[in-house]
UniProtKB/TrEMBL annotation:
Gene3D superfamilies: Tetracycline Repressor, domain 2. PANTHER family: HTH-TYPE TRANSCRIPTIONAL REGULATOR RUTR (PTHR30055), TRANSCRIPTIONAL REGULATORY PROTEIN (PTHR30055:SF235). SUPFAM superfamilies: Homeodomain-like, Tetracyclin repressor-like, C-terminal domain. GO terms for molecular function: DNA-binding transcription factor activity; transcription cis-regulatory region binding. Residues 231-240 have a biased composition (Polar residues). It comes from the Bacteria. This is TetR/AcrR family transcriptional regulator. Residues 8-68 form the HTH tetR-type domain. InterPro entries: DNA-bd_HTH_TetR-type_CS, Homeodomain-like_sf, HTH-type_TetR-like_transc_reg, HTH_TetR, PsrA_TetR_C, Tet_transcr_reg_TetR-rel_C_sf. Keywords: DNA-binding, Repressor, Transcription, Transcription regulation. Residues 231-259 are annotated as: Disordered.
Length: 259
């Protein structure tokens, strides 16, 4: 029993250190030597528990994504049960999918902002092996949420909804990856723009909350945006704007009714 606990503790320590180092330095910039030094273990221990650096990165993600995927499916199950066969509101779907992810940032036991930044940075430039891994891990969840969006917005072409989901995933990945570009654009720290002082004085829970407050309305706005004029004729929505109109109108099926 003691040996099992020791092995578990060693394994978790390696994962914790690897998660932090992969986030800070990237996959290519993090050597096994640096990981073993940080975790205070030898290379044999890493090989025993994980087998390779690739397998170690996959396991760093798996221990967090297993929880995330369960929570996303559970949230969708509850919403669909409450709806009793009626389509969900798009805002409910986005909150269940993206909101669940953002809540990780407020909980250090789930990886907190360290894991969110690692996930975002890895998704923006995934290696082939991790792309394959993500495709497998996310398959069931993505399919369920796609179908929920198709049901919620039946008059919007499915290809358009897939594109919008793609855009939302990209925005999410870029947002959680970090704020380096924001600093370049503004010359300010994230905390300054949040009205909370310097970034090093703002804890991760506050940053995660502010990120969710800014990002969720942006994602919903993108989902509700007017269809491109070339696609409006493919839906059952009212006729396209006349030649004198300068702005496309949002079709009724993209206007979410408030309760």
């Amino acid at each position: 029993m003691a040996d099992q606990k020791t092995n578990h503790d060693t394994r978790e320590r390696i994962l914790d250190v690897a998660e932090l180092l992969f986030m800070a330095n990237g996959y290519e910039g993090t050597s096994m030597r640096v990981i073993t030094t940080g975790a205070e273990v030898n290379l044999a221990a890493v090989n025993y528990h994980f087998g390779s650096k690739e397998a170690l990165l996959c396991e760093v993600f798996r221990r967090r994504l297993s929880w995330l995927n369960r929570e996303r499916l559970h949230a969708l199950d509850l919403l669909e049960a409450e709806a009793a066969g009626a389509p969900l509101k798009p805002s409910q779907i986005l909150e269940a999918f993206f909101g669940t992810l953002l809540r990780i940032g407020e909980d250090s036991s789930l990886g907190g902002m360290t894991f969110l930044r690692l996930l975002g940075r890895t998704l923006t430039q995934p290696a082939e092996f991790i792309r394959t891994f993500f495709a497998s891990e996310y398959a069931e969840v993505i399919e369920r949420y796609k179908q929920a969006l198709f049901s919620a917005l039946p008059d919007v072409p499915k290809a358009e909804l897939v594109w919008r989901l793609h855009f939302m995933l990209g925005a999410m990945s870029y947002a959680i990856a970090g704020t380096d570009v924001l600093r370049v654009l503004t010359g300010c720290e994230l905390g300054d723009w949040a009205g909370e002082g310097a970034a090093d004085s703002v804890d991760d829970r506050a940053l995660a909350r502010r990120l969710a407050q800014r990002l969720m309305p942006f994602l919903l706005g993108g989902l509700r945006a007017p269809l491109p004029s070339a696609l409006q004729s493919l839906t059952s929505s009212p006729a396209s704007p006349s030649e004198g109109d300068t702005e496309p109108q949002t079709p009724n099926h993209l206007q979410e009714k408030q309760p």
